[in-house]
Write a structure and sequence with these properties.
alpha/beta, Cobalt-precorrin-4 Transmethylase, domain 1, Rossmann fold, five-stranded parallel beta sheet, five-stranded mixed beta sheet, 15 helices, 17 strands
Amino acid sequence: MESTYFRKGFGLRSEITPQLTAAYASRIVEVVKARDYVLEVGPLTFRLAREFGFCYGVDRAVEYAYETRAKFPDRQIFLVGEIIHNPHVNAQLEQMGIRFLMHGPEARFDFSGITPDDVVILPAFGVTIQDFQALRATGCVLVDTTCGSVLNVWKRVESHARDGFTAIIHGKYWHEETKATASQVMKYQQGRYLVVLNMDEARLVMDYMEHGGEAAPLEERFASACSPGFDFRRDLERVGFANQTTMLAGESLAIAEEFRKAMARRYGAEAAAQHVRTFDTICSATQERQDAVMKLLELPPDLMLVIGGYNSSNTCNLAALTAGHGIRTYHIEDAEGIEPEAGTIRHQPVKQKRDVVEGPGWLGEARVLGVTAGASTPNNKIGEAIARVCATAGLDLEAALR
């Protein structure tokens, strides 16, 4: 019987490499890397973080999507949501005839139009158990690009649920990855999960764990962020920690430690280990990009350019990291956010989900510009951003690259 589930590629890398190079490579970025991650253009100095852009998991997902198109040239190909959170990459896939299956905030995916002759790509974030089972039932070909780091988190929360621990997930309950992770808990009848966005939410939960009180305010606040039938009086006696892989590592570790301390205060230091499990499930690529930014900030630039999708959690966290250290930070979704002729920049302020356009003069007196990009940002968009900054300042980039 022909296989209808694929996770390991189709062996077509050599066939698709020219396409990937044309779509995502950047001569500018290669020159900057060759010059020890520093590029001087007239009075401006660009300093590129040493870890940036596409991570292994994103590379794999994008390559696998291109291989899928090459493997099934005559079939309808669908993608569940976005392959990654980058508008340029998703637009490229649309141009290749891959159709996106989307849904509203509270709705479920509609797979009623999928037939056994179709091919469906699962994104790097993964999908919920319910969606996976629904797709398998259609008999279609499934191409699974779920990141290995995400799979590791799934194993962690599964073990929590199996052993009777409620999974406390540091993440965004509406994010595709967190939804998929939380669903793994529901493989077990006793499975429970609770998603906390930040330390403030975590402290609300910990305070109730230690001191009790009225559960109604928590039930209202976390109504969309917990498993069905979650009981704050019953389900916080034993908890296991995990996180969305793209959250700020420092915050995740701090939340886990505070949970451990809360359990020690409630049950005593020796008994606490029976009530809490704390593990760091931040992926290595996220950690490396955050560490590289921290290293870059040891010699603080005048401003920071952070390039990547506005809905990219790891990109937003890079912007929050630099802004949190007092650096003027511009998170741009794409290089096109910089308009040299108008002299403007369109960006998303840190921790605000809105577009802001700053007029001519946004560069100000800045002479040293830090540059980084989220794990779903291709190199060509990083290079284009550098080129557009130079054009805004009226500088000859080509001369500097020679």
